[in-house]
Known about the structure:
The protein is α+β, with helices and mostly antiparallel strands. About 20% of the residues lie in helices and about 20% in strands. The chain is built from three helices and five strands, in the order E-E-H-E-H-H-E-E. A five-stranded mixed beta sheet has the order 2-1-5-3-4. A hairpin with a 5-residue loop joins strand 1 and strand 2. The N and C termini lie far apart (about 35 Å).
Amino acid sequence: MTKITFIYPDGTEKTVETANGVSVLEVAHANNIPLEGACEGSLACSTCHCIVEDEELFDALPEPSEEEEDMLDLAFGLTLTSRLGCQIMVTDLLEGARFRLPEATRNIAS
Length: 110
């Protein structure tokens, strides 16, 4: 099991344990964490945008695909360590990882 912490916009935190092999978006949904994921993880929106708090972890993650980068361009509150939760798979590398949820999302389907 891997422990991951989600940081809400108001600064409160929720740490959860999860099995490897699922996406950060799936972890959020399974634990009632408000990471939207309007496209259900099909890489067609930016509503599962989250911010990797640890720059070293961000650098250790697999590079985002061109499609993910295109979707990130649409994300509200984009930072240098922004990623889409649907594209980050849980592995041992994420033990202790901290993901900040942005204050809002930009859902162009709404």
